[in-house]
Amino acid sequence: MTLIFFLFAFLFSTTISHVSARDFCVADLKGRETSVGYPCKSPNNVTVDDFVFSNFKVGTLNQFNFSFTPAFVDHFPALNGVGLSFGRVEVKKGGAVPMHTHADATEVIISTGGKYTAGFITSDNRVYTKTLTEGNIFVIPKGLLHFGVNVGKGKASGIVVFTSEKPSVQILDIALFGNNLDSGIVGKTTFLDVAQIKKLKALFKGSG
């Protein structure tokens, strides 16, 4: 029994040493993605450009009047295995980031300009909101519904940091109205008027 324990301890320590000895695991984006990320690119094929993301610029406005530029592992191979990713957000005057959730990532908002009211709803339906200005940092716990609204006189901007290299996202409006679920069922489960649901389905390219 002692010998078996020693053997497992040796194998475990060897594995840890091997992982620790590896300086990085730049993603081989041509490889198959798994639940633990992409396979590592051979160090012989890694260049300094793998460690630089050069497109962190203002994106195109969407129907909610905000833009989002992601710097996820699919765009930035050096993030593979790091447990972090980034986004650049700009919200036009009067615009909003709709209610959504990241099931696998905490989000940190770093406000860089404007006035932006951010908030989240806990599992017991408590609401936490704060109007952010330049220099404020706001933490949104993993998996909770959250939102943001530009409440200033000009654009609002920020950088967001996620505790995942490739965070998932589910936007509530699109989940409700961007599908082919029968409008009558949506109405019964939300108490919304069916005519309004059909209008929203047309807006979000849903059907039913």
Structure description:
The protein has 208 residues and is an alpha+beta fold. It has 2 domains: 49-167, Jelly Rolls, CATH 2.60.120.10; 169-208, no CATH class. The protein is built from 4 helices and 10 strands, in the order αββββββββββααα. It has helices at residues 2-21, 172-177, 183-190, 194-203, and strands at 66-71, 85-91, 96-101, 107-113, 116-121, 127-132, 137-140, 145-150, 156-162, 170-171. The strands form 2 sheets. The protein has a 5-stranded antiparallel β-sheet with strand order 1-2-9-4-7, with no helix packed on it. A 5-stranded antiparallel β-sheet has the order 6-5-8-3-10. A hairpin with a 5-residue loop joins β5 and β6. α3 (183-190) crosses α4. The radius of gyration is 22 Å and the shape is globular. Residues 1-20 have low confidence and may be disordered.
